[in-house]
Amino acid sequence: MTGIAAAPARMPDDAAMAPSKRSGRISATFARLREQGRRALIPYVTAGFPFADITPELMHGMVAAGADVIELGVPFSDPMADGPVIQQAGEAALALGIGLKQVLAMVARFRENDASTPVVLMGYANPIERFDHVHGPGSFIQSAAAAGVDGILVVDYPPEECEQFAADLRAAGIDLIFLLAPTSSEERMAQVGRIASGYVYYVSLKGVTGAGHLDTEAVGRMVPRIRQHVDLPVGVGFGIRNAQTAQAVGSAADAVVIGTRLIQLIEQQPRDKVVGAASGFLAEIRLALDALPAATAKNAAGR
After folding, report:
1. How sure is the predictor about 301, in pLDDT bands with cuts at 50, 70 and 90?
2. Mean pLDDT, residues 225-251
3. Which residues are catalytic?
4. Peptide bond preceding 50: is omega within 30 degrees of 0, i.e. cis?
5. Of all helices (H) and strands (E), which one includes residue 234?
6. For 177-195, what is each residue's pLDDT tens digit?
7. Helix 100-111 vs helix 139-147: angle between axes, to the nearest 10 degrees?
């Protein structure tokens, strides 16, 4: 975490932090959905997988199928929080020459025809710090903003060590999104609530992505606890594999995040079937989420 350690020591005050929680494409999207009484559908795909040049087309297809926010995984050689499916997707993308520079170019290409759908990059510290080392301090944030990135989720940046990074991102109009887990303490939730913007991502299972059995009742108990500390929408992911589990999670959460199952669906498809496979799956999830009673969504944070 050398990039964080090298940042200036100035700590932004709460007044400087507050406005960003209500600005940008992510906040506008959740505000619109809240008015409609709907939940956000957030698919995750690994950039450059299963074909190096397919990602912008795939992103457009997912939006057409009902995605509200797109999480784009940045390939990395040591993804400690990813299960085997997403690890293998990242390895395949790396073998195709996909790095952070290429991921930013994909976002820029997507933005040529979509100026409204939020895009969140999800990954690890090393590629960001390496980017700044090669291109100069602050280059990653500048390049991400120029490409049209709306949010960053860095798995191995804990909130207590990246207040300056969060402030620099906010100054560029980019939200810093954090993970919370079943093991997160009240103190950790409060730390995240003070620094995060956009939304928070609750990982509903212990361990890595794609593992274990989803306990939707436990999700229903945890989300209200999170909302006591975090005045932002709460997305839930890890273990959501079909319309039934998405609907169960959506009854408690503001957003449903789906990654592993989506990667599994597209990994064996020929190129001309990838977008259709992803879109068909997400369209079913969208219908299931929209079938939930609108009143439930009124409990969303940030109302």
Report:
1. very low
2. 94
3. 71, 82
4. yes
5. strand 234-237
6. 999 999 999 999 999 999 9
7. 30
CA separation, residue 233 to residues 14, 78, 151, 191, 228 (Å): 19, 29, 14, 16, 12
Give me the sheet containing 40-46, strands edge to edge.
175-177, 151-154, 119-123, 70-73, 40-46, 255-258, 234-237, 200-203, 179-180
Sequence length of the chain is 303
Spatial separation of the C-alpha atoms in residues 268 and 249, rounded to whole Å: 28
Nearest to 173 by CA among 206, 198, 200: 198
The tokens describing 218, both together, are 């436990």
Neighbours of 206 (CB within 10 A): 11
CA–CA separation, 122 and 125 (whole Å): 10
pLDDT, position 209: 46
Tell me the per-residue pLDDT of 258-286, one tens digit each, with 9 for 90 and over.
999 999 999 989 999 999 999 999 999 99
Residues 77-90, mean pLDDT to the nearest whole number: 85
